[in-house]
Amino acid sequence: TAGITQAPTSQILAAGRSMTLRCTQDMRHNAMYWYRQDLGLGLRLIHYSNTAGTTGKGEVPDGYSVSRANTDDFPLTLASAVPSQTSVYFCASSPQPGTGENEQYFGPGTRLTVT
Amino acid sequence: QKEVEQNSGPLSVPEGAIASLNCTYSDRGSQSFFWYRQYSGKSPELIMSIYSNGDKEDGRFTAQLNKASQYVSLLIRDSQPSDSATYLCAVQRGDSSYKLIFGSGTRLLVRP
What we know:
The structure holds 2 protein chains of 2 kinds.
Chain A: E1 4-7, E2 10-13, E3 19-25, E4 31-38, E5 42-49, E6 56-57, E7 64-66, E8 76-78, E9 87-94, E10 105-106, E11 110-114
Chain B: E1 4-5, E2 11-14, E3 19-25, E4 32-38, E5 45-50, E6 54-58, E7 61-66, E8 71-76, E9 85-92, E10 100-102, E11 106-111
């Protein structure tokens, strides 16, 4: 199975432009997550969704928005990119939050450079 | 104080040795703990999960959890050069958010 796919693999974006990072999972997991990973700062949660139709804010949500129209897709949108959003973005999913088995599985990542 | 703390390393061990990676956390309500391996330029890969005190073994990997001490560790037996990577400790918050909080990772180098 494909698991989690992300697109694009990498992107260079001019400051002020908008962009949507795509994430699709085929595991029928209820929960999905967006993280950014920066050197020295580790993985930080941007937004999450515990089930289709609901979303929540993570540690660093400013400048990002998400939607969860269905189980499989969880796009992340940067409305007006700034250089500080240069990072590697990972999408993840987990079967069922709040249960004893809620391991998160990660997609391959999107490397974004904002110039 | 960070919620999840790891020594950044690098931890250097010879091939065939036991590598011991440690992690402490601050949320006493946490019930779920995970270890991820991340190769340079790649995404985190789940290698172990542990939910109760004690040891959990899977092949060459053993996860150890001590909730009283708020401490979780990962032992890698018979370390191989292919184990060289950054190991991330992740702790699920004990509140209703179910969020994972990641440590900044320990870089492991296995010398041939």
